[in-house]
Design a protein that fits this description.
This protein has 717 residues and is mainly beta. It has nine helices and 41 strands. It starts with a strand and ends with a strand. The structure holds beta-D-galactopyranose. Beta-D-galactopyranose (GAL) binds next to loops.
Length: 717
């Protein structure tokens, strides 16, 4: 936030919004020999965000050297129109910078297929803004299972100067229907989405390609097909990966307009900067085939006219609680000229002026007809945050409008922590006392991993999914959140410092709900049994399993059958309640038509005696960027994972790599995520090893505890 760029002491500009990409033409300040580029970043006024936003330079910076005549920054717009199986018309618009009036510009446009062969080509001459169309015969569609990418290339030349610029794009159609949701290439596609904040867990907010790729792969394996970039423009690398890996994206502009949510946030700059920021956002991102909708904002205060939500004197926690409760209570001025209605139209128009090929939406938590954003008529798709019990009313209130669950769930779970009984469902923190009662509810700053805990404004995983599953007119869901993130540690205060909302924890380890979604959202055979089987003798324990591709599941406790259970349309897991614990094992077997499909067991583990290290990649590139994520688990004397281990670990890396981060997914762990010590949490910890630039060899990670010291080698090539 608030970056100012200087070159050799000369100021080039300030950008208040920390999520905007921008460029400066610094040519005029350069001198032969050494030059100094300085960036001042001022993040001193706090709070200015509802989550951990990071500080400093956290996205990639490039020095781009061109001839004076060149394709302007974000100045090449490519879109496929009139798409059929036989043909697509690709429209390309280029803006050229560095021209003089009267200069004769020559253009060459090409489309290359995925193998780099030119499949269409044309030339043009003329003005600094030039638009051409090329027809592509039998276009290969971009789809989530077949992410075929073409490249569009433009060369501009004049007076011996030349610049060539290329961008990838895809040929696909999107459509929205008020009754049947979203269509990709003519095929209905329920959006099975997650919201993601931009941080990379223990690596902070600096973007790392490999960290993003891993995050998306874990989500893909869960069955996710859609990402919402809550609540701001993402790093461009995320969009490249979504293009390649096959996700559709809701690209979101901001978390507030004029009405602030924290005292020093972007609302301070909105009036002066929003036009520029929205334009830069759309121009940067509009060639990505993965993006299927633009969101003009999340839970924007202007949904209501009330001034009550002025958060000047509130802590971020109080402001957030308020944000989640008040909107439906307000009465708006119903006039057509309501300034907030006009502002909504203006925001949507800023986008439409630059891209008409995608739907415009917003994440609205004020689910009522008087909502200024909804009644403005400016939104193509109505996005609802939470309130699934109002989906049917929404159909009546907003006839003919496509609807989507732009934000759903907000369940609270700690990986591997189970409170008995699982039927004791909790909404935390309770409504009356919100965030004020530090210590009033505190189970060691953890929440249960059974699907039995959510924020008070929100829903349990199963309920939220069933509401979307059963309604074709709800185009999809975006779970809050895919991964845990830094900040917003609802329902606790310090020492909790990261969220409990993730289906996957901050370290990237799935919580149990991950397999709920995998069983519902994929065809892969799933049978997931929990909790662990390390309890006090005789203690009653609720045993749950998620499964699919089978019609019943049988539980065995120490070999003895506890009977078969089936899930129902309303209960998406099977459960055996109050099973008395006796050391040994539990095992579930799933059957289809009486034949075994899968089985899974949990064993009572003894004391930890050794450690197991499992790198996600044993070979990484010696480029100073590549990462290996190493999972650490404690094993007992029989080689069984100890699921309750909390032993302290010490980490070091020698050779061709460095220790780059450590984590365990415990939201209340106060040891540094960049340190050398981290305890196991629910039996697991994580070390991230980064290669050193230009130093191939072997990176050796050593992890030691009171009872063991083990090493693993990672080849760096
Ligand atoms: C929503 C908000 C998110 C997050 C979430 C927590 O209202 O859009 O940013 O705060 O609540 O449940």
């Amino acid at each position: 936030m608030n970056s100012t760029v200087y070159v050799n002491g000369r100021e080039f500009g300030t950008r208040p919004y920390g999520y905007s990409s921008f460029s400066y033409d610094i040519t005029s300040a350069l001198v032969p020999g050494e030059n100094l580029i300085a960036v001042r970043c001022d993040n001193a006024d706090q709070p200015n965000s509802r989550w951990y936003a990071g500080c400093g330079i956290y996205r990639n910076v490039r020095l781009v050297v061109t001839d004076p005549v060149h394709v302007a920054y974000n100045g090449f717009y490519v879109r496929a129109t009139q798409v059929s199986d036989a043909q697509a018309r690709v429209v390309m618009t280029v803006e050229t910078a560095g021209t003089r009036p009267g200069m004769e510009l020559q253009y060459e446009f090409r489309i290359l297929d995925a193998k780099g062969r030119t499949v269409a080509r044309t030339e043009a001459a003329g003005a600094p803004v030039c638009e051409v169309s090329l027809d592509l015969a039998r276009p290969h569609r971009w789809d989530i299972d077949d992410t075929y990418l073409y490249t569009a290339q433009v060369s501009v030349s004049a007076e011996g100067m030349k610049d060539t610029y290329a961008t990838r794009f895809g040929v696909r159609t999107t459509a929205w229907d008020a009754d049947r949701g979203f269509f990709l290439n003519g095929r209905p596609l329920k959006l099975l989405g997650v919201c993601l904040h931009h941080d990379m867990g223990c690596l902070g907010t600096a973007v790392h390609f490999r960290a993003l790729q891993r995050e998306l792969q874990i989500l893909k394996d869960m069955g996710v097909n859609a990402i919402r970039t809550s609540h701001n423009p993402p790093a461009p690398e995320l969009l490249e990966l979504c293009d390649e890996m096959g996700f559709v994206v809701m690209d979101e502009a901001m978390d507030m307009w004029r009405k602030r949510k924290t005292q020093y946030d972007y609302a301070r700059f909105f009036d002066e900067w929003h036009v520029r920021d929205v334009q830069d956002f759309v121009k940067r991102d509009r060639n990505h085939p993965s993006i299927v909708m633009w969101s003009i904002g999340n839970e924007i205060g202007e949904q209501s006219d009330s001034r009550d939500d002025n958060t000047e004197n509130l802590t971020p926690e109080q402001a957030n609680a308020l944000l989640n409760f008040i909107h439906s209570l307000n009465q708006n001025d119903p006039s057509e000229n309501n300034p907030n209605v006009l502002l909504t139209r203006h925001m949507a128009q800023l986008i439409r002026d630059l891209d008409t090929t995608r739907a415009i939406t917003a994440g609205c938590n004020g689910v009522w007809p008087g909502n200024n954003l909804l009644r403005s008529g400016a939104l193509d798709v109505y996005g609802f945050n939470y309130h699934p019990q109002l989906y049917d009313s929404c159909r009546v209130w907003f006839p003919g409008k496509p609807l989507i669950g732009s934000e759903t769930v907000s369940s609270l779970n700690s990986r591997g922590i189970y409170f008995q009984p699982s039927t004791d469902k909790k909404k935390l923190p309770g409504r009356g006392w919100m965030y004020t009662a530090e210590g009033e509810v505190d189970w060691d700053h953890q929440v249960t991993a059974y699907d039995a805990c959510s924020a008070p404004w929100a829903d349990f995983h199963e309920d939220a999914w069933i509401a979307v599953r059963d309604r074709d007119f709800i185009a999809g869901t975006f779970i809050w959140t895919g991964f845990d993130y830094l900040g917003e540690p609802t329902p606790y205060g310090w020492p909790s410092r990261s969220s409990y909302f993730g289906v996957v924890d901050l370290a990237g380890f799935p919580k149990d709900a991950y397999w709920l979604y995998q069983s519902e959202w994929t065809d892969r055979t799933v049978l997931h049994l929990f909790p662990h089987w390390n309890w006090r003798e005789g203690e009653p324990v609720d045993v749950w399993a998620y499964y699919n591709n089978a019609d019943e599941v049988e539980l065995f406790v120490n070999g003895e059958s506890y009977g078969r259970q089936s899930k129902t349309p309303e209960l998406l897991h099977v459960q055996w309640l109050g099973v008395p614990f006796h050391a040994g094992s539990i095992e579930v077997v799933s059957y289809k038509n009486g034949r075994e499909v899968a089985r899974e067991a949990r064993y009572t583990a003894g004391e930890p005696v050794s450690l197991r290290l499992t790198p996600d990649r044993r070979t990484i590139a010696a480029d100073g960027y590549d990462l290996s994520y190493v999972t650490v688990e404690a094993l007992d004397a029989n080689g069984r994972v100890v699921p309750t281990a909390t032993d302290m670990l010490h980490f070091s890396v020698e050779g061709a790599g460095e220790l780059f981060g450590v984590d365990n997914g415990n939201a209340a762990d106060t040891l540094s995520l960049k340190g050398r010590d981290k305890a196991l949490f629910s039996g697991k910890a994580l070390a991230v090893v980064r290669s050193l630039r230009g130093e191939p060899g072997t990176a050796t990670l050593t992890v030691s505890s009171d009872f063991a010291s083990v090493k693993t080698n990672i080849a760096v090539k």
